[in-house]
Amino acid sequence: MSAGLSVWRGLRPGPALGISVAAVAAAMAIGGVLVALMGVPVGEAVAAFADGAWGSPYALSASINRALVLMLVGLGFVFAERANLTNVGGEGQIAVGGIAATALALWAPVAGLPLGLAFMVPLLGACLAGALWGGLAGVLKARAGTNEVIATLLLSFIAVWMVYGSVQSEQLLRRPMTTSATLPESLEIPAATQLPLLLGDASMPLHAGLPIGLALAVLVAVVLGYTVLGVRLRAIGLNPLAARRAGMPVERLAVGALCAAGALGGLAGACMLQGEQYTLKAGFSSGYGFDGLVVGLLARGSVPGVVAGALLFGFLRSGGINMEMATQVPTALVVVIQGLIIVILAGAALAIQRLEARR
Fold this sequence. Notes:
The protein has about 350 residues and is an all-alpha fold. The chain has helices spanning about 1-10, 15-35, 40-55, 55-80, 90-105, 110, 115-145, 150-165, 210-225, 230-240, 240-245, 250-275, 290-300, 305-325, 330-359.
């Protein structure tokens, strides 16, 4: 499959867009067939899905907030991909970002900071934590030749267990145990450190992470498309040996690309904690890092593609949750649809590669 996705990234925008649309449509159609096989009326399931995805201002806002997290992870994937690096560590980068944001938000002096610094400091701390986590994989690749796919994936497992350990110990982030029923989670972060609502209305909980994320999307697009750094990243991605002979610091650029990807993943974790959940608990990342990987693959290096893919998967998440509650169709169906999209993309790319080879 990795070979197929490699070919997929090299396709021209027109064919790639057509394959993306066809893959999503085919996966949705297969999902509808699976719903019918479960004995649930397809129309009823679709109605429940639509109601959960965009059927009310609250549902629409929740979908967009989920899409924001996926967009940040997808942006990190695309940034690293420009240097021919595959960052599959979004889940771990979300985890360390969440730990850092929670720790800083619960640190008493932060809550009293003026001018919005109370919520900005945890965001910046999460970015730094994610950058260090992504940079560690970059150093392993630059110094030891470790494949970044293996490094980022294994670091994700470590980070997820770090979250578990943090909320199990009162010396770290666990709330004080008052009874045996006290859950293993952190205290709720102070209101001053929570991301402000854009509209000031809890019935439409779009938060300040949205404009920050959109600004970063524009920044990533500009850096990759219109700066010397973007050209250098493309150069080391296409031919690192030629780039090294041209005097480019290949190792430092690779480490920097993974640091940037990790910072975006860490920010995604902070947005989840400060914008929606407000308490750190084991499993809080809920697979968003892996969904963000799929968003990045669908985007084929395009920032607008990341935004579109994130919205698609954000609505899929929200609609799937409501569909399970209303019709008993398991949310695992959404995971199946995501997997089908990747399999169809990889299969189509391999078919195109073989067709071109015959020609």
